[in-house]
Amino acid sequence: MNQPPASIDAIAEALQAQAYLPSRELATAAFLALRLSRPLLLEGAPGTGKTAIAAALAAALQRPLIRLQCYEGLDLAAAAYEWNYARQMLEIRLAQAAEHQRTADELFARRFLIERPLLQALTTQPAPVLLIDELDRADAPFEAFLLEFLADYQITIPELGTITATAPPLVILTSNRSREIHDAVKRRCLYHWLDFPDAARELAIVRARLPQIDQRLAGQVVAFVQGLRQLDLYKLPGLAETLDWSRALVELNAVSLDPATVQSTLGVLLKYQDDIARVQGSEAARLLAEMREVVRA
Ligand SMILES: Nc1ncnc2c1ncn2[C@@H]1O[C@H](COP(=O)(O)OP(=O)(O)O)[C@@H](O)[C@H]1O
Ligand SMILES: [Mg+2]
User: Fold this and answer.
1) pTM of the predicted model, to two decimals?
2) Which of 174, 239, 244, 268 for a ligand 1 pocket mutation test, highest count of atoms within 8 Å of Cβ?
3) Where in this chain does the record put each AAA+ ATPase domain (predicted)?
4) Which of 178, 215, 225, 296 has the most neighbouring CB atoms within 10 Å?
């Protein structure tokens, strides 16, 4: 798809072709982000498809994907650009040897600039999809720096001037909400909250990602996980866990869920001992009984 999608249905279909099944609301948000050239801020629990949609959009739109993983202490040099000091020093030495005068201006030319993801997003053709992942991990000053970038798709480099994108990249920002993203960033973005999928969509996703899985087993896995999400656990399993568990069960040649199989594979779904202890035994038996009600295969 070289043309931007003409409709919400078109973008939903293009994503489905990448085995990413968006909700109608998410497809609408992505459509509008493209049409309005606005960044899209995605929040939601871990494992709800925030990171994956950026890759799926890039593939669907046939655009390069540029990824910036945020972390505490992320700074301009790692996120946007850095001067290549080693090359500048070399240039000065060479100039000295040739008794040629080098002016500071010449030393701050584009060829001495190392482009990091944000700057790459402005200079790459065709306009890429830029994923700014887990923004809540970066510190607040970094968000302040992002404001110019998000508002005007440009970066101002003091020694060089302002670099602007010829065509705006599609920017996807994600947050796991370990802290609130600043209002000023939010104001520049469209916003969408990703929830856990309902049973029908989760089942469709498992089938799309794991075509070889037994249909009945897939139904049971989804019903069980949906049941788990009703419990008051420290960390609820996301889609990533549903898919991991499905893969594990396929690997074990399981054809249906029984207490022993659940017991021995809970660590694929739950990563905290308190949660595992809570679910093991009678709770798992209750969920399995409930699951049989739902699936009644
Ligand atoms: N709507 C979806 N359709 C297909 N696969 C999905 C969908 N949402 C999530 N996934 C899959 O679930 C896993 C977790 O998604 P991810 O994007 O890493 O979650 P997050 O970034 O929200 O923590 C990935 O393997 C991803 O491919
Ligand atoms: Mg993620």
Assistant:
1) 0.92
2) 239
3) 36-197
4) 225
